[in-house]
Design a protein that fits this description.
Length: 136
């Protein structure tokens, strides 16, 4: 069994249309959720969400440094527009790391950390960092 990981950037709020955020920023979301929309994975969302992710990685070695750098390289050109959207739509920003760790004693543990340009981006957009870990 291998470990899995995902790093994504999301903006959450009460009443906003995620497609309007995409238009404002000039970047399409890879995932959206609308408040009150019924879905199998989130029965009744309490807020709307706009997120950008490269998806879940499944590997013997999960490198959060590399995953977060790749994501920020895509988001950095839109930093000012993200800040504008955060204010205009009254949103909260989250830089999310989700890890499913292989419980095999022989398996490699994830490399978890952030390079300075990732930290600078997170600070510039006023995001919090949230790291969730699960046993695989």
């Amino acid at each position: 069994m291998t470990s899995k990981g995902e790093v994504y950037f999301a903006m959450y709020g009460n009443d906003f249309e995620p497609d309007e955020v995409s238009t404002h920023i000039g970047l399409a979301a890879t995932g959206v959720r609308r408040k009150g929309e019924r879905r199998p994975e989130v029965p009744l969302p309490r807020n709307s969400a706009w997120e950008v992710s490269f998806g879940r990685v499944e590997s013997d070695v999960i490198d959060v440094y590399e995953m977060s750098e790749t994501l920020v390289a895509q988001l950095a050109p839109f930093e000012a527009k993200i800040v504008e959207a955060k204010t205009a739509f009254n949103l909260r920003c989250v830089f999310q790391v989700v890890l499913w760790i292989d419980q095999n004693e022989e398996a490699s543990m994830p490399a978890i950390g952030f390079e300075s340009q990732v930290i600078s981006f997170i600070h510039a957009v006023g995001a919090k960092i949230d790291i969730d870990t699960y046993r695989n």
